[in-house]
């Protein structure tokens, strides 16, 4: 990786800064896929009221890109490693923009739904390849920093996209989809600023002098543990995102405005959590400690939320939850990238995206399923809280044990 223009350190000045910014902006297309459309759902349902079962199909149109992304991401990762990064990213970004705009001109709901399915395919490509390029361009320390900033950018853009989608949707539900023209600008900038990295054709890399001299070997069994952790992180993160209105309704606070205010303020603390990770990276905090804090805060908040009696209490506990999520999500992201050799970086990133998006998709389904056993959402959270606390302790205990075993083996030799 030290020959040719393979790391961003080789590019200096303005171009380097714009390349960094562009790679962070690409991840914002993921929340755009759903959030821009969300405020317009009632108007879309009303417009297509003649379509059978439209009350079920409308929310599916909102969430289907995420499910498609979960399904196709491993294949996308494989293709990224086999055929290269830049051309795939640029073409898919153009396609994302064109397919995203399509509902402005469609008056058949099934065509609209189909366009959302196709959008999910290109969303998978854009997110997988742009994340892989961060792994390719940056040294280990900068890589962790910018992968954490990916989550910051996505969380911040979610607030902006929801407000913009609401404003444009208030004029016309079709007008909201004009936002999808923005990626076309990203594609032009990507053609100018990005380059194709030289990829090694092996399953291991040697880390540069900034890190250590050890070899990164692709270990499927170890990676599976990371991917399962990403699935659990996504499930737990989405619980509060979806269940806030139901928690408030259970204590007699049924105002959508209250739920929206709590959700908006909580998102701010997700961002603050991701920024805290930047400090933890500078202090070389081990991943296991990040997982302990992240899962620990979320588990603790679930126990508190299960006993909440007012909207103010829900707000305070939601802030704790969101701050923990802000620490957890970037940590599982760069944990995955840290253990991927360059030749398998696309595949590993694609599989990670798959597990993460399946976690977000199945989160509400799992909660409804568990509610059937516990009797209520509050009881479910009361059960999940201690389980997450136990998992948080397991993460750091496992890491300590692993380090002890590795040290013992080294001493033996």
Automatic annotation (TrEMBL):
It is found in: Cell membrane. Pfam families: MFS_1. Coiled coil: none annotated. Residues 19-410 form the Major facilitator superfamily (MFS) profile domain. CDD domains: MFS_arabinose_efflux_permease_like. It is a multi-pass membrane protein. One of its GO terms (molecular function) is transmembrane transporter activity. The chain crosses the membrane at residues 12-36, 56-76, 88-106, 112-134, 146-169, 175-195, 222-242, 262-281, 288-308, 314-335, 355-372, 384-405. Its main location: membrane. GO terms for cellular component: plasma membrane. Keywords: Cell membrane, Membrane, Transmembrane, Transmembrane helix. This is MFS transporter. It comes from Acinetobacter lactucae.
């Amino acid at each position: 990786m030290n020959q040719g223009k393979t790391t961003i350190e080789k590019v200096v000045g303005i171009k380097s800064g714009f390349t960094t910014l562009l790679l962070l902006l690409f991840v914002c297309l993921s929340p755009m896929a759903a959030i821009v459309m969300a405020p317009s759902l009632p108007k879309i349902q009303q417009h297509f009221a003649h379509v059978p079962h439209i009350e079920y199909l409308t929310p599916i149109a909102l969430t289907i890109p995420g499910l498609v992304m979960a399904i196709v991401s491993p294949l996308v990762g494989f293709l990224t490693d086999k055929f290269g990064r830049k051309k795939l990213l640029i073409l898919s970004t153009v396609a994302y923009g064109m397919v995203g705009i399509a509902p402005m001109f469609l008056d058949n709901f099934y065509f609209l739904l189909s366009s959302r399915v196709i959008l999910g395919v290109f969303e998978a490509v854009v997110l997988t390849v742009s994340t892989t390029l961060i792994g390719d361009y940056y040294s280990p320390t900068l890589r962790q920093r910018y992968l954490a900033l990916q989550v910051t950018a996505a969380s911040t853009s979610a607030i902006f996209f929801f407000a913009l989608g609401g404003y444009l949707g208030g004029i016309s539900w079709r007008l909201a989809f004009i936002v999808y023209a923005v990626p076309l600008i990203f594609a032009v900038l990507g053609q100018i600023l990005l380059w194709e990295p030289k990829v090694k054709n092996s399953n291991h890399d040697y880390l540069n002098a900034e890190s250590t001299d050890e070899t990164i070997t692709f270990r499927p069994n170890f990676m599976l543990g990371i991917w399962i952790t990403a699935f659990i992180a996504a499930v737990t993160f989405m619980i509060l995102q979806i269940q806030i209105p139901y928690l408030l309704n259970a204590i007699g606070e049924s105002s959508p405005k209250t739920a929206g205010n709590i959700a908006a303020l909580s998102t701010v603390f997700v961002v603050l959590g991701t920024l805290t990770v930047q400090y933890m990276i500078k202090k070389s905090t081990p991943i296991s400690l990040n997982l302990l804090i992240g899962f620990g805060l979320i588990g603790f908040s679930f126990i508190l939320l299960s006993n909440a009696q007012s909207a103010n209490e829900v707000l305070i506990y939601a802030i704790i939850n969101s701050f923990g999520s802000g620490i957890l999500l970037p940590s599982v992201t760069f944990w995955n990238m840290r253990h991927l050799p360059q030749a398998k970086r696309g595949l590993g990133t694609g599989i990670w995206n798959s597990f993460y998006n399946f976690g977000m998709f199945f989160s509400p389904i799992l909660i409804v399923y568990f509610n059937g056993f516990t009797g209520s959402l509050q009881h479910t959270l009361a059960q999940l809280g201690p389980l997450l606390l136990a998992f948080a302790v397991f993460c750091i205990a496992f890491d300590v044990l692993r380090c002890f075993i590795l040290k013992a083996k080294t001493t033996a030799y």
